[in-house]
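ARCHIVE CARD
Drawer: 12
Card no.: 0347
Subject: one protein chain, sequence and derived structure
Cross-reference: see card 0346
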Amino acid sequence: MKLVIGLGNPGSKYKNTRHNIGFSVIESICSKYNILDFTDKFDGKLTRKKFFNHDILFFMPMTYMNNSGIPISKLVNFYKIPLENIFVIYDDLDLTVGKIRIKIGGGNAGHNGLKSIDQHIGNNYYKIKIGIDKPQETSMITNYVLGKFEENDLSKINRIFDFLADNFNLILNHENEKFLNLYYSNLNKEVKNNKI
């Protein structure tokens, strides 16, 4: 069994904000494959599906971001999921919009959701970072991450959603380098052909 987690904040006021990109990715993948039967469990939204020949739990914690680790730890402990089978999708201020990075373990770079997860289950899980860029002034970060994407960034974000949905099997199979090479190869072709 593998666990795919999207991080975000609950409530309509946070929907489609930069900080909720983890929720948006989960919703996009599940919508594409008609995975609609989420239930309220472990203080979050949970569904279990056969997906790309894997037994997958998709989960969105419904606590606020800085308490994400509490429901995740309940879920992980209940199903006894090893950390190397956990994939957490979240926003990254240090990556520009349109960039994706994948790594296992490492620090949390000040991300409150990751801080909470690390505190409750450790840090040796897969991190799928989606770039959101950052404002010039650190004092603007809170309003920035809780704001929505600019119109000119939406095409890049939607491309990421589509690509993840089409190729998530590579991540589930731990073929992260292949996934990223394919993503950036396609991205470079689009840039060259002036499609973005």
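Annotation on reverse: The CA atoms of residues 7 and 22 lie 5 Å apart. The chain has one domain: 2-194.
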